[in-house]
């Protein structure tokens, strides 16, 4: 089985994440997409990242009835900081019957040379790239391991959702209803 891995903090998961995962699971050569909840991106600053297990639960709630999309907590069980190459190596050892590929935005493709062992990633894994505004001409876009997709673009971010919640604005339809109920029940992002 060919599994695409979409890594993220999912703080919170929103419909933009789900559209990307659904498109890649159903409109590419991938069989499934796993949403890999990351404890902390080594290239990002600690900010208003909420509890990892709350983010994991929201991702599970959002994908409860999804076809070909599931949530993975693999990075929560690995040493920190979690680097993509280490997670890929671990998954390859755990599931030798699967072929794993990375899913990333074109903004991450631009920063890929900053990643730990990025040349190994390019050598050993396919990378499916979804477009992000302002990052259309990444240097690695023509690499043989990279597939640029026609994933629908959406100007929606978790930062916008967190800010809106903090400002007591309605975020209905930006996040799935079960996720919104979870956020409200735990008074998250206020």
From TrEMBL:
Record keywords: ATP-binding, NAD, Nucleotide-binding, Nucleotidyltransferase, Pyridine nucleotide biosynthesis, Transferase
SUPFAM superfamilies with a match to the protein in the record: Nucleotidylyl transferase
Domain Cytidyltransferase-like: start-end pairs: 6-163
Pathway: Cofactor biosynthesis; NAD(+) biosynthesis; deamido-NAD(+) from nicotinate D-ribonucleotide: step 1/1
Matching InterPro entries: Cyt_trans-like, NadD/NMNAT, Rossmann-like_a/b/a_fold
Designated name of the protein: Probable nicotinate-nucleotide adenylyltransferase
Record field: catalytic activity: nicotinate beta-D-ribonucleotide + ATP + H(+) = deamido-NAD(+) + diphosphate
